[in-house]
Amino acid sequence: MAAPGGARRQPLLLLLLAGFLHSASAVFTVRDVNGTACIMANFSATFLTNYNTKSGFKNVSFDLPSNAKVLNSSSCGKENASDPTLMIAFGGGHTLTLNFTRNATRYSVQMMSFVYNLADTQIFPNASSKEIKTVESITDIMADINKKYRCVSSNQIHMNNVTVTFRDATIQAYLSNNSFSKEETRCEQDEPFPTVLPTSYHPSPSPPHPSPSPIPESPSVYKYNVSGANGTCLLASMGLQLNITYKKKDGTAVTRVFNINPNKTHVSGSCTDQLVTLELQSESSTFLVFQFGMNASSSRFFLQEIQLNTTLPDARDPNFRAANSSLRALQATMGNSYKCNAEEHIWVTEAFSVNVFKVWVQAFQVEGDKFGSVEECQLDENNMLIPIAVGGALAGLVLIVLIAYLIGRKRSHAGYQTI
């Protein structure tokens, strides 16, 4: 039964995150015919997508505005017990919808959809189409019944070519007392991540050992670049290989290795003062994101986050997601580039890692679309030390033999006297 909805908004709170301002937080409420709240949501959100213009694809990022409204088509569901829906409208015909579901112990945003109107010239200037597009995806937003979902960290939901980033989110459905519960279920992003080991290290094995899949050939090395309003912000040349451990439908664990084929991958990204994003979407429904951050005090850039969203047809849970935003890989001084000919192994989670081949990368300060001075990785330096050490040992051995020969020859001459 459809119910009228309304929104109560608190004063704007400007969130300063990662060094730049994001959208203001707002409270959205859905009520039943008796005026009882069944859904409350308080969050800020940023949308990142691309669209086609006469001059090619263009990336655009925009925030959920403070004047966004809850639509009357929002609903508390049948008897306020099943399938409530929050629909938020803003701008020139854009709608964000959160569809909730529950079981005996938990509720979740089972499906999120976003409808955007390319005819909105304020957000999509010079769009070659005036279409209304719809994208959707399952989410990891879930909490225990009678508890609010709480996530201070950024939580990104990928829906085809649209990425929605939620920040400082408090969401609750199936409310029992017209307000947020005092108890909460924290999101995975807020919890401490497993210790991130340095690249080239492997975690301790834990039984049962998953069955490895045949290792494919090394992936093709491809040059990626991301540009923004101020020019190129990322140059990256590398081959990419994914390692995913999961349970098959029969319960057995398996590790599969996938190469990223650049010829079948759509490349996009975005640039800000504090964050550079490279997005790779393949034909096989694999969405891979690399985010580079920077440390202003040390003047260094680094790979700080990897996200993966893919489909595994033979898995017990076909929708595989993994993310880690506390990485410190591929580091170099701002203005310089990071290069590594050796294969690097970057652990993202216990179930997902990335092999990077022949990487050469530079983020933020890119001059003239060319790589800056090279800072070589420790693996390459170690690989150089081995032949140097072997060469030094051989040279030392030759010197010892030569000295021994000369001493022996001198003693031999000393044994003879002239008559």
UniProtKB/TrEMBL annotation:
List GO terms (cellular component aspect): cytolytic granule membrane; late endosome membrane; plasma membrane
The organism's superkingdom is given as Eukaryota
Q: Where is this region: Disordered?
A: 181-217
Signal sequence bounds? 1-26
Family indicated by similarity: Belongs to the LAMP family.
InterPro entries in alphabetical order: Lamp2-like_luminal, Lamp2-like_TM, LAMP_CS, Lysosome-assoc_membr_glycop
List the subcellular locations.
Cell membrane; Cytolytic granule membrane; Late endosome membrane; Lysosome membrane
Q: What is the lineage of its organism?
A: Eukaryota, Metazoa, Chordata, Craniata, Vertebrata
Give me the stretches of Pro residues compositional bias. Answer: 204-217
Membrane-spanning residues: 384-407
Subunit = Interacts with ABCB9; this interaction strongly stabilizes ABCB9 and protects ABCB9 against lysosomal degradation. Interacts with FURIN. Interacts with TMEM175; inhibiting the proton channel activity of TMEM175.
Gene Ontology terms: biological process: establishment of protein localization to organelle
Domain Lysosome-associated membrane glycoprotein 2-like luminal residue range list: 28-173, 219-367
Which keywords does this chain's UniProt record carry? Cell membrane, Disulfide bond, Endosome, Glycoprotein, Lysosome, Membrane, Signal, Transmembrane, Transmembrane helix
Respond yes or no to whether keyword Cell membrane is given for this record.
Answer: yes
> Which residues does the UniProt record annotate as the domain Lysosome-associated membrane glycoprotein 2-like transmembrane?
386-417
Q: How does it sit in the membrane?
A: Single-pass type I membrane protein
Give me the disulphide-bonded residues. C151-C187, C233-C271, C340-C377
Which protein, by its recorded name, is this?
Lysosome-associated membrane glycoprotein 1
Keyword Transit peptide (UniProt): no
